[in-house]
Specification:
By secondary structure, this protein is of the alpha+beta class. The chain has one domain: START domain (Alpha-D-Glucose-1,6-Bisphosphate, Chain A, domain 4), CATH 3.30.530.20. It is built from three helices and seven strands. It has helices at about 15-25, 25-30, 120-145, and strands at about 5-10, 35-40, 55-60, 60-75, 75-85, 90-100, 105-115. The chain has a seven-stranded antiparallel β-sheet. β6 and β7 (about 105-115) form a beta hairpin. The longest helix has 25 residues, at about 120-145. The radius of gyration is 15 Å and the shape is globular.
Length: about 150
């Protein structure tokens, strides 16, 4: 299997709390990446998008799949795994937030393997995942430009 790694670094001219809340809220994250994202299970923690919450992502032509939040540290870190569906396995997403001189720095990584053993499939899936997320985060960053 071909393990794939995506790393996106993006800065935002906004407080870390603003960007963290926007990108870790399941529905608002869907709006940012222009994809249908719906929270289907609320976390039992204080934040309904926290550990244990589940979001369903529907993005044609890929069948709907679900992601479960496994780590949630307000204004710092959210990690999630694909928990149902999807043409990939061993998927882990990690959004790490930091603040530098009043700006938010985001390091967003995604690691996964395709379920099917075709070498080319991994790189195709990587591009299909990375490109729209990268463009969406760049677009969001421009909204906060000074």
């Amino acid at each position: 299997m071909s393990k794939q790694h995506i790393e996106i670094r993006q800065s935002f001219n906004a407080p870390v709390e603003t960007i963290f809340n926007l990108l870790t809220d399941h529905e608002s994250f869907g709006k940012v990446i222009a994809t249908k994202v719906k929270r289907v299970v609320d976390s039992q923690e204080e934040n309904k998008n926290g550990v244990g919450s589940v979001r369903r992502i529907t993005s044609f032509p890929v069948p709907a799949f679900e992601e479960t939040v496994v780590t949630f540290e307000p204004n710092h870190l959210m990690e999630y795994v694909v928990s149902k569906g999807s043409p990939i396995k061993n998927h882990k997403g990690r959004m790490e937030f930091s603040e530098e001189e009043g700006k938010t720095k985001l390091c967003y990584t995604i690691d996964f393997e395709p379920k099917l053993p075709f070498t080319l499939l991994g790189s195709v899936l990587k591009q299909a995942i990375e490109k729209p997320i990268r463009k969406s985060l760049e677009r969001l960053s421009k909204r906060y430009a000074p």
